[in-house]
DNA sequence: CGGACTGTAAGATGTTCATCGAACACTCGG
DNA sequence: CCGAGTGTTCGATGAACATCTTACAGTCCG
């Protein structure tokens, strides 16, 4: 019957935090980690809603990966949506940029090595 | 004979890091701490070279304080100079801003609660 | 249904880091 | 030279966190 994108999954919906409710400290802490930094960067270089959690080339297991995405959600950086068995991601560019102007741009600059 | 600012103290000079040599990760990590955030903010609101390390109203002992200043120096955020028995500080606004445009401005905005 | 795939949850482990207390170094004024 | 003031270093402690392993909960396909 109902398809994935349509009806709605029976899975617990991911908890999202509005960037407006995020403190500077939380935002900086979220970005101050090599793995999460790479996630954000890869995400920024991909079309929206195209990357599932497992599609990232990071050197950690899926449990840790799940944790990192939880942190990114809590910082208002990433939005997630269930699409069949996968959970696809979107970088909340505009919303996050409205709350912290220039921060994402800064982090995404190639000049900024690790 | 030689006065403090002139001759040069016999004390170990503080180790400074050029903002140009600082990674994004280091910069974000340095700012992702409540005590250091407060130090930077207080420093930004004071004239240059007027604040000694002990003049900040932070809820930590002097040992921890010394550590935090070390981190801030390592991130290219603060410059220190010995002035008599005191060590006075300067926020490296322009230099840091050249390396990470907008980051300091963002952190100093009053709108950004802790 | 059963199995492959994807992600989350819980518990254990190890490391990093913020903090403190105490000892030390240096400067300056009596 | 001594003492007050200022800051650093060292060792230890405790908390936070990143990670793993294992177990579990969904979704989809045959």
From TrEMBL, chains A, B:
This is ArsR family transcriptional regulator. It comes from Streptomyces olindensis. Keywords: DNA-binding, Transcription, Transcription regulation. The lineage of its organism: Bacteria, Bacillati, Actinomycetota, Actinomycetes, Kitasatosporales. InterPro entries: ArsR-like_HTH, HTH_ArsR_DNA-bd_dom, HTH_MetalResp_TranReg, WH-like_DNA-bd_sf, WH_DNA-bd_sf. Residues 16-111 form the HTH arsR-type domain. Gene3D superfamilies: Winged helix-like DNA-binding domain superfamily/Winged helix DNA-binding domain. Transmembrane segments: none annotated. It comes from the Bacteria.
């Amino acid at each position: 019957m109902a398809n994935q994108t349509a009806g709605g999954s029976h899975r617990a919906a991911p908890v999202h935090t509005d960037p407006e409710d995020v403190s500077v400290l939380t935002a900086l802490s979220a970005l101050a980690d090599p793995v999460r930094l790479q996630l954000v960067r890869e995400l920024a270089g991909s079309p929206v809603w195209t990357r599932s959690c497992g599609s990232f080339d990071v050197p950690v297991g899926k449990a840790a990966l799940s944790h990192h995405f939880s942190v990114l959600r809590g910082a208002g950086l990433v939005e997630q949506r269930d699409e069949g068995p996968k959970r696809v991601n979107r970088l909340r560019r505009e919303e996050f940029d409205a709350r912290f102007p220039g921060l994402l741009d800064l982090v995404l600059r190639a000049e900024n090595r690790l």
